[in-house]
Structures are given as structure tokens and as C-alpha cells.
Design goal:
The protein is mainly alpha-helical. The protein has helices spanning 2-14, 18-38, 46-93. Helices cover 85% and strands 0% of the residues. The chain is elongated and about 65 Å long.
Length: 97
């Protein structure tokens, strides 16, 4: 379970599959740490579980930052194309601004 967490976390970072691989990595990592803690030393792999948790959280953070960057760039392009007043006018037309 710990190794699966690590592999999913690495896949999430390398292939930019943040949510698709990051969430299962985090779930597997927490499950592995729980099993390791309650096995009384019979099960090893806490380092793999921690690394899987870290890579899982990083992959989700990277995905969030990429979505945020795309949103900012899209908004900036819209503002440049339509002017600042155009954005406010469009938002008012939608009932948002």
C-alpha cells in the first residue's frame, strides 16, 4: 500500500495527473501509515508512505496552481482584448458586478 502511494504520487507529478493520481496516493499513504502504526513493527514502509503522501499533496498543489495560472492568463487576455470597462460591463450584464 505504501509503495502504491509513492508510485501514484510520482505519476501524479510527472504526468500532471494531480487529482486523478494524487488523491489515491494520499488515500493509500494514510491507509499504509495506519496499517504500519497498528502492525506493531510487523509491517514496514513508513518512509514510502510518507513519500507517497508528500508527492500526492504536491501533485494536487501543482494541478491547482496550473488551473489558477490558466485562469489568470485567460482573465488577463480578456481584459486586454475588451478593455477594463468591458469586463465590468460584461460582469454587470451577467448580474455579477
Amino acid at each position: 500500500m505504501a509503495l502504491a502511494s509513492l508510485i501514484l504520487g510520482i505519476i501524479g507529478i510527472v504526468l500532471c495527473l494531480g487529482v486523478l493520481a494524487g488523491i489515491p496516493a494520499i488515500i493509500c499513504g494514510h491507509m499504509a501509515r495506519f496499517n504500519i502504526k497498528h502492525a506493531g513493527g510487523a509491517v514496514k514502509g513508513d518512509g514510502f508512505a510518507i513519500a507517497g503522501l508528500i508527492t500526492g499533496y504536491i501533485s494536487i498543489a501543482i494541478t491547482f496552481l496550473l488551473f489558477l495560472l490558466v485562469g489568470i492568463v485567460t482573465l488577463a487576455r480578456f481584459v486586454v482584448q475588451h478593455g477594463r470597462g468591458g469586463v465590468l460591463h460584461d460582469l454587470r450584464g451577467l448580474g455579477i458586478g
